[in-house]
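Subgroup meeting minutes
Present: P.N., E.W., G.H.
Scribe: E.W.

1. P.N. recapped why we're keeping a running log of single-chain structure predictions: easier to compare across weeks, and new members can see raw inputs and outputs side by side.
2. G.H. added today's entry (168 aa).
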Amino acid sequence: MSDFGRLVTEQIPRLRRYARALIGAQRADDLVQDCLERAWSRQHLWDGQGDLRAWLFTILHNLYVNGVRRQASAPPFESLPEQEPPALQPSRHEAGLELRDLQRSLEQLSAEHREVVLLVGLEQLDYTEAAAVLNVPLGTVMSRLARAREALRRTLQEPPRARLRRVK
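Output recorded in log:
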């Protein structure tokens, strides 16, 4: 396996985690596969000196954004509810409820805020890398992150009954 192949393979778990957080488990693997396919066919564009992880996340993010735009212009359809395989569900009931609340709170954020929270919080990219992936200024990343964190904090501090009323 080439060095490029080995380096890309090392990033697959991170790409999958980010994709799952963006669009859910059912479509995440397709998005990652499209990202890897594009990276492999365009490996000559990576100079070998830059951060491969940021380059791959940029490709994945751009594919996601293009998909959202394409979907917005397509006719609507009803999708089946996503269900996690039993082996991936949390074993503790309380932890499962906390994760559910966090997921719902993340879903309530705007796409711009959710993307920056996932890149910085979940994928642990620094602000500069996140700005490069999202193709926005560093200050925009910092601003979006602050607003997103505040929105999450407000949502997660609400009493459970208030959250139930809002979700229904």
